[in-house]
TrEMBL record:
Transmembrane annotation, as ranges: 20-38, 50-71, 91-113, 120-138, 178-197, 218-241, 247-267
The keyword Nucleotide-binding is assigned to this record: no
Domain called DUF6533: residue spans: 21-66
Keywords of this entry: Membrane, Transmembrane, Transmembrane helix
Basic and acidic residues: bias regions: 329-339
Segments of skewed composition (Polar residues): 283-295
Disordered as annotated region, ranges: 278-298, 311-339
Name recorded for this polypeptide: DUF6533 domain-containing protein
Entry keyword Transmembrane helix: yes
InterPro entries on file: DUF6533
One Pfam family hit: DUF6533
UniProt source species: Phanerochaete carnosa (strain HHB-10118-sp)
Length: 339
């Protein structure tokens, strides 16, 4: 075998191994996140009434765990792998990935619904933009076939091949990647802008009064981190799409990071808006005369996701106006009695 052939083989193996390392690292990160937050899941999901928030959080976490475990099985090569054993794990992984894309779209829509005074218009816009990734990946899954390939250094592996021709696939993939990533970037940007518009004023008032508003801080901090991380991943995939080696390395991060960030975001929101936290903050604010920011209670099963953001000043002003009206009414009655 000539030297150029050996060099090409080494480079191909290096890219193949690097992709597996990134996949395993992303899976380990997802499993680690699941384990360190299992206590929070028990408190939020299993020890409280069933709400959309609890069901969404539980489904996000368990789909993330199952996808991570399945990734290990798909990454490892087996010398006795058969074609009938090849397709089912890959199909199951596709199902989990599609469910995760659907969960991410639902989460973004519910964020806008809760933050922007239950706006169905903005929620629908964000949901439509976010669901594009689900539709495009569903189409990719339907157009995928599975084959067994023998690699000289790693053995038999199951690979996915498109049913389209190479030229048609390249043209379609170029359009799909840019449409999908562009729609996700736009959806995340809308959510971030609406979050800042709604909560930045509360956050500035809290800083001016030297008061910590945990819910506003959580929305701004976690929402911004969520947007920046996903923006970096989406931009990386767009910029490296024409380079097959780098493009394949971004895939595990695209599918692993969104559910991980959603899980941590929802846990932090629940911790910031817990009943005990609300009670302690309410007592402190009554003593200091400072406003609070919290989710309004919803009568349905949406939980915090269905409530709108409320400012404590509004409640206090209503109470003061009611008290003033009551005092004025009593004064009028006393004056009438004396007359």
């Amino acid at each position: 075998m000539s030297a150029p052939s050996n060099q090409a083989l080494v480079q191909a193996y290096s890219r193949f191994a690097t992709g597996d390392y990134i996949t395993i690292a992303a899976s380990c990160l997802a499993i680690y996140e699941f384990l360190v937050t299992i206590g929070d899941e028990i408190k939020i999901v299993w020890k409280r009434p069933i709400t959309v928030r609890a069901v969404l959080l539980g489904s996000v976490r368990w789909c993330m765990l199952l996808a991570a475990i399945l990734n290990f099985q798909l990454t490892l090569s087996s010398p006795k792998c058969l074609l009938q054993d090849c397709a089912p794990p890959d199909i199951l992984y596709w199902v989990l990935v599609l469910v995760q894309f659907l969960q991410a779209a639902l989460f973004s829509a519910l964020r806008v619904f809760a933050i922007w005074n239950r706006s169905y218009v903005w929620s629908l816009v964000v949901f439509v933009l976010s669901i594009v990734s689900f539709v495009t990946n569903l189409n990719d899954a339907a157009m995928t076939k599975y084959e067994l390939v023998m690699y000289p250094l790693t053995g038999i592996s199951c690979i996915e091949e498109s049913q389209l021709s190479a030229r048609a696939y390249d043209i379609r993939a170029f359009r799909v990647v840019y449409i999908t990533r562009g729609s996700l970037i736009l959806a995340d940007a809308i959510v971030l802008v609406l979050t800042w518009i709604k909560t930045f004023g509360h956050w500035m008032n809290a800083r001016r009064l030297n008061m910590r508003v945990s819910l506003a801080t959580c929305l701004l901090r976690d929402g911004t981190i969520y947007f920046i991380v996903l923006l970096a991943i989406n931009m990386t995939q767009l910029l490296t799409f024409n380079f097959s080696a780098e493009a394949s390395l971004v895939g595990p991060l695209v599918t692993t990071l969104p559910p991980l960030l959603i899980s941590r975001f929802m846990i932090n929101l629940r911790a910031a808006g817990s009943p005990m936290s609300d009670h302690s903050v309410h007592i402190s604010d009554q003593q200091q005369g400072q406003p609070t920011l919290q989710f309004g209670r919803s009568g349905d099963r949406l939980g915090n996701c269905g409530g709108t953001l409320q400012n404590g000043w509004n409640d206090e002003l209503c109470e003061e106006e009611s008290d003033a009206a009551g005092v004025e009414e009593e004064g009028r009655r006393e004056t009438t009695a004396e007359a």
